[in-house]
Hints:
9 strands
Amino acid sequence: MAASHDRGRPPHPDVLTPAEWRVAEGVRHGLTNRVIAQRQGVTLDAVKFHVSNVLSKLGLRRRSDLRQWTGVRVDSNLAINPPTQGVGMERFELGQVARHVKDIDAATVFFRDVVGLQHLYTFGKLAFFDCAGVRLFLSESDDTAASLLYFRVAAVHAAQVELEKRGAHFISAPHLIHRHADGTEEWMAFFNDNEQRPLAIMAQVSPQPTSATAEETSNV
């Protein structure tokens, strides 16, 4: 008979399970439980269960504490291939502008066919376009809030530390919001301007090259 410690699911190598990480990143992005459930195709009860487990595992008391938690999942590009020490604010440029639209399909046609912007990709009610290197992010919503500016940085965690030293107040810690098909990760963190309106920093983190790719590069 197997020993009791051999039974059940083996322990996960990270502080959170993959499902818990997905929910935690949604919370850090400022999404409600209902929106997280809709986007991930799970039940609201499942999201609430994961949020409760995450807070317990991390020793956090409130959901707001999780938004400030700076943890990084062990299988992310950022953990596997961390940025060089000191890299952060040397590149600080406009990377994305977000705008709400009432009809994402109609807006996609307009900005693609009328304005002539390159359509990058669409995820449900979200559409992205390239505007001379600056990304236009459209999301379908009845909200008429002002556009949100995203600033591209070299290393999102280092940039957060530097901005906080200068007096910026962050409302969410850096977090992974999307992984593209080629493995490139999108990381973001949000902070307030002097009038308490949100701004964001963003960074793309590429996957670590395979040994074969690294060898090919070294031979170029």
